[in-house]
Amino acid sequence: MLLREIKNIFHKELDVLFPKEEVDAFFYRCVEHYLKLERFVLAVQPELTLSKEEEQPLFEALSQLKQERPLQYILGEAHFMDLELKVNENVLIPRPETEELVQWILDDLDAERSRSVISSPLNDLLSSTQNPSPFTILDIGTGSGCIAIALAKHLPQAKVFALDVSEAALEVARENAQKNKVEITFLHQDILELELGLELEFDIIVSNPPYVRELEKEKIKNNVKEFEPDTALFVPNEDPLVFYRAIAGFSKVNLKKNGGLYLEINQYLGAETKALLKAHNFSEIELRKDLFGNDRMLKATVPLRPAYRR
Ligand SMILES: C[S@@+](CC[C@H](N)C(=O)[O-])C[C@H]1O[C@@H](n2cnc3c(N)ncnc32)[C@H](O)[C@@H]1O
Questions:
Q1: Using one digit for the tens of pLDDT, what is the confidence trace for 237-268?
Q2: DSSP code of 136?
Q3: Does the model's pTM come out above 0.85?
Q4: Which stretches does DSSP call E strand in the chain?
Q5: Rounded CA gap, 21 and 197, in Å?
Q6: Which residues form the pocket of ligand 1, taking CB atoms under 6 Å from any ligand atom?
């Protein structure tokens, strides 16, 4: 069959479910993935004909797309910043908003580096691989490992830790760390059970925890609701900030002096989440919008209260 005929079939079957541009994107992504052909192939070879074996994976993907299974799960891979990551139904598909959170951290570290011309702990870290007190980062609720791996890749001297309650998610994250050639210490832990903290201290704690209220389920697209893991997404209506409270408590114990806490948040709960950090005595709290103009990220500094420190 001609490749352009298959493209027409994608549109015929999927245009009722998705915008036309998205169907185009699905089609060309499948062409790239299964046929290893560039997306402009049809422009240069409009009469390109596929064999039965070549057609088969495209039609299999089409039938799963009709069930609204996310393309990333069908292909088993997703992109996050400059990384290629394995994904399956045990992990959330990394989102562009989360890339912005990682970029915020990298920009802050860059700014700090250029500010501190003279020696600072960060400069020492970044200039020496033998530092006795390495710069440490913890990613809470790591899922596919996207945040931790992106930070490890960009900050090769940092010691990166990542935790998740789901062993199945950690399995994917470990594979992704290996695939992207970074070393990460993975911890199988429940953040809701870590009030006493860990025997470790961090310069940066980052998290994109579950934050979607059950009441927001209706607004969510089927492909997210039905295929992405509930444990990664949902929180009870009556206590939507449960994870932020636990992370704030944990961070008071486990963040180093002047350490930074970076959080992705529910866009409808920006003020409430900020107030929660304030109530926990965090300082320099900054709320930021994502590329879609929604309140999406918070940054704060650990309170410098001796009582909180070990
Ligand atoms: C919104 S997902 C974020 C995944 C990934 N960090 C990302 O940004 O794509 C939240 C993650 O938190 C994990 N999680 C849920 N409850 C948890 C808990 N009690 N303790 C630790 N991790 C938890 C889920 O398994 C999931 O991987």
A1: 999 999 999 999 999 999 998 899 999 999 99
A2: E
A3: yes
A4: 77-80, 83-86, 136-140, 159-164, 184-188, 202-207, 212-213, 234-235, 255-264, 283-289, 295-301
A5: 47
A6: 92, 94, 98, 141-144, 146-147, 163-166, 169, 190-192, 208-210, 231-232
